[in-house]
Predict the 3D structure of the following.
Amino acid sequence: MKKLLLLLLCCFILGSSFAQEHARLYIPPKDSLERKNLAEWQDLQFGLLMHWGAYSQWGIVDSWSLCPEDEGWCERRGEHADNWYDYKNAYENLQTTFNPTQFQPERWAAAAEAAGMRYVVFTTKHHDGIAMYDTKMNDLSIIKATPAKKDMIQPFFAELRKRDIKCGAYFSLLD
């Protein structure tokens, strides 16, 4: 019993020192404009992290349904739900049918404003790899890979800026 307590104590001490060591890795930016921008974001308090992409046409939470947990929000649904391989193939082909013809960024921005939001962080590319803007990095963009053929970020950010709502861009490197 004493050995177990000693082991737990050692783990706690090592874990604490590890966390403190990593806490020291943050280096504040030297650029005064970056520091000012970070300070502004610190005080915004209420906003939205918005995930929206080809997966939205299925009404699912991005790619979580490819590896679902026991949570209802990430379970597989629809005609391919019973067969993982069929589901994965159908998921990977969502860009071929993603065409948000009723995209109305002014309504999204108005809803954020009416709710009192002070910022919106929009998913510019989730880890499914589809960029919501034109990119030269690959062909997986809303411009090149979908029937939509139009940038979704610029008009949405323009609407947010009209309402003095700060814009942020979430970009996943995992694709």
